[in-house]
């Protein structure tokens, strides 16, 4: 077995050839071949071709190959094994730093590790610096990773690096990796910058700290007598500042410290002496502003000075008496005097004084006005009668007992605004309303003078509505009213305040009454007799007037009674050829009535009585007419059958 090529590259083709030697006397022998890889046949069955082409080989195709040949006599010969190693080009080249992250301190060791994900055979690794590719090192070894080391890095080693790998099938490059050589900070220098030649209380001084060398970011800390004042960061290197508003206690030694994580360094100490400033430009302000405060709220009188150092004594005074109403000593340029829950008698003119030992100074006079919020208003509803009836004019009056004018009053029905009215000088306000049924409900009012609205308690108002003309409805189980049925008389007024009393009438005579406590309609049940035919009506009354419905006519249908069957002449035996009258009649029943005549349950004839009463049928007799006779009656409300009468006909 031979393979061409013997070491193929992954993705290329391989041709396997099974070479044989046939004796000279057997040149016309037919041969067949098959090929194997790692014990598995590559093509099913035998082939007459001594070659097998593998169009694409992959790393999984690496292994032991052989072939077999046989003649038609079935003698099989196997070749020796051939080892085929599929060659894999390098790919996925990466470059990593040790220590990781590409941050290394000056003087420390830096290792650049070049690594490939795949690749066979000897691999040549190359290291480069910069985008232009300054060659640093080349190594060839049979492994997937190689290392290049810089024993002690310096400032010039900062930059971007990449590597390449090649195993004879073309180089592959890594991405650029940044390396930063970090430098410890030098000893910083502290500078104190004041606005004048002499630092005074109240001055704003700048403490400036700067290390001349050191990799950023650098954290600076500022100290007064070894007590930390604050800190500031310089992300891009250079110096940092800290501002300080001076007091007398700020005299003393100052220093600063620089730290970039590679070791902190402290500056030399710098002394600072602070002197005092007299108070000046005293002013008095109030909160809330504009000289107005609401009764019950808090009044704050703010006394402030433009300049002044050290402890300052602030005092507040009423102009009318000159007496002090408050006093505070504190180290600040302003102080507050709070007057909680201000009352009307706190109104007046005020001033303040300030003194820090260099002589007092006084503010201008400030006027304070106390405004009174409205109290909870009271709503009064005035109607022309004890019970407000639809159509009445009702007056809604709203009044707040306290409150600085002007006061705006709003009137509400179920939280829906009806309108408003203003009281420019205080007092009450009114709103008139022509009421309808929809105006029943809760009423309230609201008073507002700009210092907070107040809502009254709700006042209920019920609008009484006279009943409308009721409608009488007769509800029957069938389309017709039949004697013995129960009908419902329903009386209902579409409008009217409850309770409503309903009365029911037949031809002007009272049948009964029913109460609808919550409004709506009411019913009256009636078991019908023939006498209940006639006109019906109903009446509705809610004490605000009586209304009578229109008349509803009702006709009661009476089912037929059992009919009476008679013969004329009334004899039990009669001769052939005689004429016999058969008569059928019911005592009760609404017309029209249909009568049937039967002989031995065979219908002889039927006839109608349109206006009630009985009906007759004449029969000329033969001998076949002997037997039992009867009749039936029906008016659509149920048929009835008479008793049978016997008849004997003789020749």
UniProtKB/TrEMBL annotation:
The keyword Signal applies. InterPro entries: Ig-like_dom, Ig-like_dom_sf, Ig-like_fold, Ig_sub, Ig_sub2, Immunoglobulin_dom. Residues 1-83, 89-180, 188-275, 278-367, 377-464, 470-553, 563-650 form the Ig-like domain. The keyword Transport does not apply. Its main location: membrane. GO terms for cellular component: plasma membrane. It is found in: Cell membrane. Keywords: Cell membrane, Disulfide bond, Glycoprotein, Immunoglobulin domain, Membrane, Signal. This is FCRL5 protein.
